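Problem: given the chain below (443 residues), write out its structure.
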Amino acid sequence: MSETILNSTDMTPSQDGKIGHVSRSIRLQTLVRLRWLAVAGQTITVLIIWGVLDFPMPIAQATILIAALAVANLILSAWFPATHRLGPKSALALLCFDLLQMGALLFITGGLGNPFAPLICVPVIIAFASQPLRHSLVLLVFALVCTTVLSLSPYPVPWYEGEHLRIQPIMQLGVWFSIASMMVFAAFYAYRVSHEASLLADALVATEMILEREKHLGQLDGLAAAAAHELGTPLATISVVAKEMERELGQDERFKEDVQLLRSQSERCRDILRRLTSLPAEGEEHLRRLPLSSMMEEVIAPHRQFDIDIRLVQKTDGGHEPIGVRNAGILYGLGNLIENAVDYAKSEVVISVEYDDQRVAIMIEDDGPGYSAVILSRIGEPYMTSRTRERSEHAGGLGLGLFIAKTLLERSGASIRFSNRGDGQVGARIRIEWPRSIMDKPI
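Solution.
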Protein backbone atom coordinates (compact mmCIF):
# COMPACT_ATOMS: atom_id res chain seq x y z
CA MET A 1 0.00 0.00 0.00
CA SER A 2 2.73 2.46 0.96
CA GLU A 3 4.74 1.57 -2.12
CA THR A 4 1.72 2.19 -4.32
CA ILE A 5 1.20 5.61 -2.78
CA LEU A 6 4.81 6.60 -3.36
CA ASN A 7 4.49 5.71 -7.01
CA SER A 8 1.10 7.27 -7.54
CA THR A 9 1.93 10.60 -5.94
CA ASP A 10 5.35 10.85 -7.64
CA MET A 11 6.74 12.77 -4.71
CA THR A 12 9.88 10.90 -3.70
CA PRO A 13 12.89 13.06 -2.91
CA SER A 14 15.76 13.29 -5.33
CA GLN A 15 19.40 14.09 -4.83
CA ASP A 16 19.21 17.64 -6.11
CA GLY A 17 16.64 18.74 -3.62
CA LYS A 18 13.55 18.17 -5.71
CA ILE A 19 10.39 16.48 -4.56
CA GLY A 20 9.17 14.55 -7.56
CA HIS A 21 8.53 17.05 -10.34
CA VAL A 22 8.27 20.07 -8.03
CA SER A 23 11.61 21.83 -7.57
CA ARG A 24 12.67 24.06 -4.69
CA SER A 25 12.19 27.60 -6.00
CA ILE A 26 11.96 31.16 -4.74
CA ARG A 27 9.54 33.89 -5.77
CA LEU A 28 11.22 36.86 -7.43
CA GLN A 29 9.24 39.33 -5.33
CA THR A 30 10.65 37.75 -2.15
CA LEU A 31 14.22 38.21 -3.38
CA VAL A 32 13.48 41.76 -4.54
CA ARG A 33 12.17 42.72 -1.10
CA LEU A 34 15.23 41.25 0.59
CA ARG A 35 17.43 43.26 -1.76
CA TRP A 36 15.55 46.48 -1.00
CA LEU A 37 16.18 45.73 2.67
CA ALA A 38 19.87 45.35 1.84
CA VAL A 39 19.85 48.66 -0.05
CA ALA A 40 18.24 50.42 2.91
CA GLY A 41 20.62 48.84 5.42
CA GLN A 42 23.72 49.65 3.38
CA THR A 43 22.57 53.24 2.78
CA ILE A 44 21.84 53.87 6.45
CA THR A 45 25.16 52.32 7.50
CA VAL A 46 27.16 54.44 5.03
CA LEU A 47 25.33 57.63 6.06
CA ILE A 48 26.03 56.98 9.74
CA ILE A 49 29.71 56.16 9.19
CA TRP A 50 30.37 59.00 6.75
CA GLY A 51 27.87 61.63 7.81
CA VAL A 52 27.38 61.15 11.55
CA LEU A 53 30.66 59.61 12.75
CA ASP A 54 32.63 61.53 10.08
CA PHE A 55 34.90 58.57 9.34
CA PRO A 56 36.83 58.89 6.06
CA MET A 57 35.72 56.37 3.46
CA PRO A 58 35.41 56.04 -0.34
CA ILE A 59 31.89 57.45 -0.43
CA ALA A 60 31.68 57.75 -4.24
CA GLN A 61 32.52 54.09 -4.85
CA ALA A 62 30.17 52.99 -2.06
CA THR A 63 27.34 55.06 -3.52
CA ILE A 64 27.87 53.51 -6.97
CA LEU A 65 27.76 49.98 -5.57
CA ILE A 66 24.57 50.63 -3.58
CA ALA A 67 22.97 52.36 -6.59
CA ALA A 68 23.84 49.34 -8.77
CA LEU A 69 21.87 47.06 -6.47
CA ALA A 70 18.92 49.48 -6.43
CA VAL A 71 18.90 49.85 -10.23
CA ALA A 72 19.02 46.07 -10.66
CA ASN A 73 16.02 45.80 -8.36
CA LEU A 74 14.07 48.40 -10.35
CA ILE A 75 14.79 46.56 -13.60
CA LEU A 76 13.66 43.23 -12.17
CA SER A 77 10.46 44.76 -10.75
CA ALA A 78 9.61 46.39 -14.08
CA TRP A 79 10.52 43.42 -16.28
CA PHE A 80 8.89 40.54 -14.42
CA PRO A 81 5.49 40.15 -12.68
CA ALA A 82 5.42 39.95 -8.90
CA THR A 83 4.37 36.28 -9.01
CA HIS A 84 7.29 35.19 -11.19
CA ARG A 85 9.30 32.30 -9.77
CA LEU A 86 13.00 32.03 -10.44
CA GLY A 87 14.54 28.94 -11.94
CA PRO A 88 17.67 27.56 -10.26
CA LYS A 89 20.06 29.16 -12.76
CA SER A 90 18.37 32.56 -12.63
CA ALA A 91 18.32 32.54 -8.83
CA LEU A 92 22.00 31.53 -8.78
CA ALA A 93 22.89 34.43 -11.10
CA LEU A 94 21.04 36.98 -8.96
CA LEU A 95 22.52 35.69 -5.71
CA CYS A 96 26.01 35.74 -7.25
CA PHE A 97 25.40 39.38 -8.21
CA ASP A 98 24.29 40.17 -4.65
CA LEU A 99 27.32 38.40 -3.25
CA LEU A 100 29.63 40.26 -5.61
CA GLN A 101 28.04 43.64 -4.75
CA MET A 102 28.29 43.06 -1.02
CA GLY A 103 31.83 41.71 -1.35
CA ALA A 104 32.92 44.78 -3.33
CA LEU A 105 31.40 47.12 -0.73
CA LEU A 106 33.21 45.28 2.05
CA PHE A 107 36.45 45.22 0.03
CA ILE A 108 36.65 49.04 -0.21
CA THR A 109 35.77 49.45 3.47
CA GLY A 110 38.38 47.29 5.14
CA GLY A 111 37.73 43.74 3.97
CA LEU A 112 37.61 41.21 6.79
CA GLY A 113 38.40 44.00 9.27
CA ASN A 114 34.93 45.45 8.63
CA PRO A 115 32.57 44.36 11.44
CA PHE A 116 29.84 43.78 8.80
CA ALA A 117 31.93 41.16 6.97
CA PRO A 118 29.84 38.20 8.27
CA LEU A 119 26.89 39.53 6.23
CA ILE A 120 28.51 37.92 3.20
CA CYS A 121 26.91 34.68 4.46
CA VAL A 122 23.36 35.94 3.77
CA PRO A 123 23.11 35.09 0.03
CA VAL A 124 24.51 31.63 0.74
CA ILE A 125 21.90 30.97 3.44
CA ILE A 126 19.13 32.14 1.09
CA ALA A 127 20.40 29.80 -1.62
CA PHE A 128 20.54 26.75 0.63
CA ALA A 129 17.06 27.51 1.97
CA SER A 130 15.42 27.80 -1.45
CA GLN A 131 17.55 26.28 -4.22
CA PRO A 132 18.68 22.81 -5.35
CA LEU A 133 21.78 21.55 -3.59
CA ARG A 134 24.18 21.59 -6.53
CA HIS A 135 23.43 25.25 -7.33
CA SER A 136 23.78 26.20 -3.68
CA LEU A 137 27.18 24.50 -3.48
CA VAL A 138 28.39 26.58 -6.43
CA LEU A 139 27.39 29.74 -4.58
CA LEU A 140 29.08 28.50 -1.40
CA VAL A 141 32.39 28.02 -3.24
CA PHE A 142 32.04 31.47 -4.82
CA ALA A 143 31.36 32.99 -1.40
CA LEU A 144 34.47 31.35 0.07
CA VAL A 145 36.52 32.78 -2.82
CA CYS A 146 35.08 36.25 -2.16
CA THR A 147 35.86 35.90 1.54
CA THR A 148 39.45 35.00 0.69
CA VAL A 149 39.73 38.05 -1.58
CA LEU A 150 38.43 40.25 1.25
CA SER A 151 41.38 39.20 3.37
CA LEU A 152 43.64 40.82 0.74
CA SER A 153 41.91 44.20 0.81
CA PRO A 154 44.41 47.13 0.84
CA TYR A 155 41.74 49.58 2.02
CA PRO A 156 41.67 50.54 5.70
CA VAL A 157 38.64 50.17 7.93
CA PRO A 158 36.85 53.57 8.22
CA TRP A 159 38.08 55.02 11.51
CA TYR A 160 38.83 58.29 13.26
CA GLU A 161 40.77 60.91 11.28
CA GLY A 162 44.51 60.53 11.78
CA GLU A 163 44.23 57.03 13.31
CA HIS A 164 44.81 53.79 11.44
CA LEU A 165 42.98 50.70 12.68
CA ARG A 166 45.40 47.95 11.70
CA ILE A 167 44.15 44.37 11.69
CA GLN A 168 46.86 41.81 12.34
CA PRO A 169 47.16 38.94 9.80
CA ILE A 170 46.49 36.33 12.47
CA MET A 171 43.27 38.16 13.36
CA GLN A 172 42.24 38.26 9.69
CA LEU A 173 42.91 34.52 9.44
CA GLY A 174 40.74 33.94 12.50
CA VAL A 175 37.96 36.07 11.03
CA TRP A 176 38.19 34.12 7.75
CA PHE A 177 37.80 30.80 9.54
CA SER A 178 34.99 32.22 11.64
CA ILE A 179 33.05 33.42 8.57
CA ALA A 180 33.74 30.21 6.62
CA SER A 181 32.60 27.95 9.46
CA MET A 182 29.51 30.06 10.09
CA MET A 183 28.70 30.02 6.39
CA VAL A 184 28.98 26.23 6.13
CA PHE A 185 27.05 25.57 9.35
CA ALA A 186 24.27 28.05 8.59
CA ALA A 187 23.99 26.79 5.01
CA PHE A 188 23.72 23.17 6.11
CA TYR A 189 21.15 24.03 8.78
CA ALA A 190 19.05 26.13 6.38
CA TYR A 191 19.13 23.36 3.77
CA ARG A 192 18.10 20.63 6.21
CA VAL A 193 15.26 22.69 7.71
CA SER A 194 13.97 23.75 4.30
CA HIS A 195 14.31 20.25 2.84
CA GLU A 196 12.49 18.61 5.73
CA ALA A 197 9.76 21.24 5.57
CA SER A 198 9.32 20.51 1.85
CA LEU A 199 9.11 16.78 2.52
CA LEU A 200 6.58 17.34 5.27
CA ALA A 201 4.44 19.65 3.14
CA ASP A 202 4.39 17.20 0.22
CA ALA A 203 3.65 14.29 2.53
CA LEU A 204 0.72 16.18 4.05
CA VAL A 205 -0.61 16.89 0.56
CA ALA A 206 -0.39 13.17 -0.20
CA THR A 207 -2.20 12.47 3.08
CA GLU A 208 -5.08 14.75 2.07
CA MET A 209 -5.23 13.06 -1.34
CA ILE A 210 -5.44 9.61 0.22
CA LEU A 211 -8.15 10.70 2.67
CA GLU A 212 -10.20 12.27 -0.10
CA ARG A 213 -9.84 9.12 -2.18
CA GLU A 214 -11.01 6.93 0.70
CA LYS A 215 -14.01 9.21 1.27
CA HIS A 216 -14.78 9.14 -2.44
CA LEU A 217 -14.78 5.34 -2.49
CA GLY A 218 -17.19 5.35 0.43
CA GLN A 219 -19.59 7.56 -1.54
CA LEU A 220 -19.69 5.43 -4.70
CA ASP A 221 -22.71 3.40 -3.58
CA GLY A 222 -24.77 6.54 -3.18
CA LEU A 223 -23.65 7.81 -6.57
CA ALA A 224 -24.51 4.46 -8.15
CA ALA A 225 -28.00 4.58 -6.65
CA ALA A 226 -28.51 8.12 -7.93
CA ALA A 227 -27.37 7.10 -11.40
CA ALA A 228 -29.72 4.10 -11.32
CA HIS A 229 -32.63 6.35 -10.38
CA GLU A 230 -31.89 8.80 -13.20
CA LEU A 231 -31.43 6.05 -15.80
CA GLY A 232 -34.59 4.19 -14.78
CA THR A 233 -37.03 6.29 -16.83
CA PRO A 234 -35.20 6.25 -20.22
CA LEU A 235 -34.46 2.54 -19.81
CA ALA A 236 -38.12 1.83 -19.14
CA THR A 237 -38.98 3.69 -22.35
CA ILE A 238 -36.44 1.60 -24.27
CA SER A 239 -37.94 -1.58 -22.80
CA VAL A 240 -41.48 -0.59 -23.87
CA VAL A 241 -40.33 0.24 -27.40
CA ALA A 242 -38.45 -3.09 -27.59
CA LYS A 243 -41.63 -4.98 -26.65
CA GLU A 244 -43.62 -3.12 -29.31
CA MET A 245 -40.98 -3.88 -31.91
CA GLU A 246 -40.97 -7.55 -30.91
CA ARG A 247 -44.72 -7.73 -31.28
CA GLU A 248 -44.68 -6.04 -34.69
CA LEU A 249 -41.51 -7.63 -36.12
CA GLY A 250 -41.31 -10.85 -34.13
CA GLN A 251 -42.24 -13.02 -37.13
CA ASP A 252 -39.87 -11.25 -39.52
CA GLU A 253 -36.74 -13.37 -39.79
CA ARG A 254 -34.67 -10.34 -40.80
CA PHE A 255 -35.26 -8.54 -37.47
CA LYS A 256 -36.38 -11.29 -35.09
CA GLU A 257 -32.94 -12.08 -33.62
CA ASP A 258 -31.96 -8.41 -33.26
CA VAL A 259 -35.22 -7.43 -31.57
CA GLN A 260 -34.98 -10.32 -29.10
CA LEU A 261 -31.38 -9.33 -28.29
CA LEU A 262 -32.42 -5.71 -27.76
CA ARG A 263 -35.20 -6.70 -25.38
CA SER A 264 -33.03 -9.19 -23.41
CA GLN A 265 -30.26 -6.63 -22.96
CA SER A 266 -32.74 -3.97 -21.81
CA GLU A 267 -34.08 -6.42 -19.24
CA ARG A 268 -30.52 -7.14 -18.10
CA CYS A 269 -29.87 -3.42 -17.67
CA ARG A 270 -33.03 -3.09 -15.60
CA ASP A 271 -31.87 -5.94 -13.33
CA ILE A 272 -28.49 -4.24 -12.83
CA LEU A 273 -30.12 -0.91 -12.01
CA ARG A 274 -32.52 -2.65 -9.64
CA ARG A 275 -29.58 -4.11 -7.70
CA LEU A 276 -27.81 -0.75 -7.63
CA THR A 277 -30.95 0.94 -6.33
CA SER A 278 -31.19 -1.60 -3.52
CA LEU A 279 -27.61 -1.02 -2.28
CA PRO A 280 -28.32 1.95 0.01
CA ALA A 281 -31.35 0.28 1.55
CA GLU A 282 -29.42 -2.90 2.23
CA GLY A 283 -26.11 -1.40 3.32
CA GLU A 284 -26.75 2.15 4.52
CA GLU A 285 -26.56 1.27 8.21
CA HIS A 286 -23.52 -0.91 7.65
CA LEU A 287 -21.76 1.88 5.78
CA ARG A 288 -22.69 4.56 8.32
CA ARG A 289 -21.98 2.76 11.61
CA LEU A 290 -19.41 0.04 12.16
CA PRO A 291 -18.80 -2.21 15.21
CA LEU A 292 -15.19 -2.49 16.28
CA SER A 293 -15.02 -6.23 15.44
CA SER A 294 -16.41 -5.62 11.94
CA MET A 295 -13.96 -2.79 11.41
CA MET A 296 -11.04 -5.05 12.34
CA GLU A 297 -12.20 -7.84 10.03
CA GLU A 298 -12.62 -5.37 7.19
CA VAL A 299 -9.08 -4.06 7.72
CA ILE A 300 -7.47 -7.49 8.12
CA ALA A 301 -9.30 -9.31 5.29
CA PRO A 302 -7.15 -8.05 2.36
CA HIS A 303 -3.99 -9.35 4.06
CA ARG A 304 -5.12 -12.90 4.84
CA GLN A 305 -4.22 -14.10 1.35
CA PHE A 306 -0.51 -14.11 2.16
CA ASP A 307 1.49 -16.85 3.87
CA ILE A 308 1.62 -14.89 7.14
CA ASP A 309 -0.77 -16.07 9.87
CA ILE A 310 -2.83 -13.15 11.24
CA ARG A 311 -4.38 -13.77 14.67
CA LEU A 312 -6.99 -11.42 16.09
CA VAL A 313 -7.20 -11.46 19.90
CA GLN A 314 -9.94 -9.55 21.72
CA LYS A 315 -9.53 -8.60 25.38
CA THR A 316 -12.58 -7.02 26.98
CA ASP A 317 -14.00 -6.41 30.44
CA GLY A 318 -17.43 -7.70 29.41
CA GLY A 319 -18.85 -4.30 28.41
CA HIS A 320 -20.64 -3.59 25.16
CA GLU A 321 -18.59 -3.41 22.00
CA PRO A 322 -17.78 0.07 20.61
CA ILE A 323 -19.89 0.96 17.58
CA GLY A 324 -18.70 4.06 15.79
CA VAL A 325 -19.14 5.98 12.59
CA ARG A 326 -17.16 4.63 9.65
CA ASN A 327 -13.94 6.66 9.39
CA ALA A 328 -11.95 6.35 6.16
CA GLY A 329 -8.82 7.70 7.85
CA ILE A 330 -8.89 5.04 10.58
CA LEU A 331 -9.55 2.23 8.09
CA TYR A 332 -6.71 3.32 5.86
CA GLY A 333 -4.28 3.97 8.73
CA LEU A 334 -4.84 0.60 10.40
CA GLY A 335 -4.68 -1.19 7.05
CA ASN A 336 -1.32 0.37 6.28
CA LEU A 337 0.15 -0.55 9.68
CA ILE A 338 -1.07 -4.14 9.32
CA GLU A 339 0.37 -4.32 5.81
CA ASN A 340 3.78 -3.19 7.10
CA ALA A 341 3.61 -5.82 9.85
CA VAL A 342 2.78 -8.53 7.28
CA ASP A 343 5.63 -7.36 5.03
CA TYR A 344 8.22 -7.78 7.79
CA ALA A 345 6.79 -10.74 9.71
CA LYS A 346 8.41 -14.15 9.37
CA SER A 347 5.35 -16.23 10.09
CA GLU A 348 2.83 -14.46 12.33
CA VAL A 349 1.14 -11.15 13.08
CA VAL A 350 -0.86 -10.81 16.29
CA ILE A 351 -3.48 -8.05 16.54
CA SER A 352 -4.86 -7.47 20.04
CA VAL A 353 -8.00 -5.41 20.62
CA GLU A 354 -8.80 -4.06 24.07
CA TYR A 355 -11.61 -1.80 25.23
CA ASP A 356 -13.25 -0.69 28.45
CA ASP A 357 -15.33 2.28 29.56
CA GLN A 358 -12.43 4.73 29.12
CA ARG A 359 -10.37 3.64 26.14
CA VAL A 360 -10.08 1.53 23.00
CA ALA A 361 -6.64 0.13 22.16
CA ILE A 362 -5.29 -1.88 19.24
CA MET A 363 -1.84 -3.47 19.36
CA ILE A 364 -0.13 -4.86 16.25
CA GLU A 365 2.82 -7.22 16.79
CA ASP A 366 4.92 -9.18 14.31
CA ASP A 367 7.81 -11.64 14.62
CA GLY A 368 10.06 -9.81 12.15
CA PRO A 369 13.41 -8.09 12.79
CA GLY A 370 11.88 -5.19 14.76
CA TYR A 371 13.10 -1.59 14.69
CA SER A 372 16.72 -0.54 14.91
CA ALA A 373 17.56 2.14 17.48
CA VAL A 374 18.19 4.73 14.74
CA ILE A 375 14.92 4.06 12.95
CA LEU A 376 12.94 3.93 16.18
CA SER A 377 14.07 7.45 17.09
CA ARG A 378 12.92 8.83 13.72
CA ILE A 379 9.92 6.65 12.98
CA GLY A 380 6.95 8.40 11.44
CA GLU A 381 9.03 10.83 9.39
CA PRO A 382 8.15 10.86 5.67
CA TYR A 383 10.30 9.02 3.12
CA MET A 384 11.98 6.58 5.49
CA THR A 385 12.11 3.28 3.65
CA SER A 386 13.21 0.51 5.99
CA ARG A 387 13.06 -0.75 9.57
CA THR A 388 16.70 -1.66 9.75
CA ARG A 389 19.79 -0.60 7.84
CA GLU A 390 20.31 -4.25 6.89
CA ARG A 391 17.00 -4.31 5.05
CA SER A 392 17.29 -0.94 3.33
CA GLU A 393 16.56 -2.60 -0.02
CA HIS A 394 13.02 -3.38 1.17
CA ALA A 395 11.18 -0.63 -0.66
CA GLY A 396 8.06 0.92 0.76
CA GLY A 397 8.27 -0.71 4.20
CA LEU A 398 8.31 2.43 6.28
CA GLY A 399 8.00 5.39 3.99
CA LEU A 400 5.41 7.91 3.02
CA GLY A 401 2.68 5.32 3.61
CA LEU A 402 3.55 5.03 7.30
CA PHE A 403 3.66 8.80 7.68
CA ILE A 404 0.20 9.07 6.10
CA ALA A 405 -1.16 6.29 8.32
CA LYS A 406 0.27 7.91 11.46
CA THR A 407 -1.08 11.33 10.47
CA LEU A 408 -4.58 10.03 9.72
CA LEU A 409 -4.79 8.05 12.97
CA GLU A 410 -3.57 10.99 15.05
CA ARG A 411 -6.14 13.21 13.35
CA SER A 412 -8.81 10.77 14.48
CA GLY A 413 -7.73 11.35 18.09
CA ALA A 414 -5.43 8.36 18.50
CA SER A 415 -2.07 8.21 20.24
CA ILE A 416 0.50 5.90 18.63
CA ARG A 417 3.56 4.31 20.22
CA PHE A 418 6.17 2.34 18.28
CA SER A 419 8.47 -0.10 20.08
CA ASN A 420 10.04 -3.54 19.92
CA ARG A 421 8.48 -6.56 21.62
CA GLY A 422 9.81 -7.38 25.07
CA ASP A 423 10.03 -10.51 27.23
CA GLY A 424 12.63 -12.09 24.96
CA GLN A 425 10.38 -11.90 21.88
CA VAL A 426 11.70 -10.58 18.59
CA GLY A 427 9.64 -8.25 16.47
CA ALA A 428 7.97 -4.86 16.27
CA ARG A 429 5.02 -3.57 18.26
CA ILE A 430 2.65 -0.70 17.48
CA ARG A 431 0.03 0.40 20.00
CA ILE A 432 -2.83 2.68 18.91
CA GLU A 433 -5.18 4.02 21.56
CA TRP A 434 -8.28 6.23 21.45
CA PRO A 435 -10.56 7.60 24.16
CA ARG A 436 -13.74 5.50 24.22
CA SER A 437 -15.86 8.56 23.43
CA ILE A 438 -14.17 8.94 20.03
CA MET A 439 -14.56 5.32 18.90
CA ASP A 440 -18.08 4.73 20.27
CA LYS A 441 -21.36 6.10 18.95
CA PRO A 442 -24.20 5.16 21.35
CA ILE A 443 -27.17 3.36 19.86
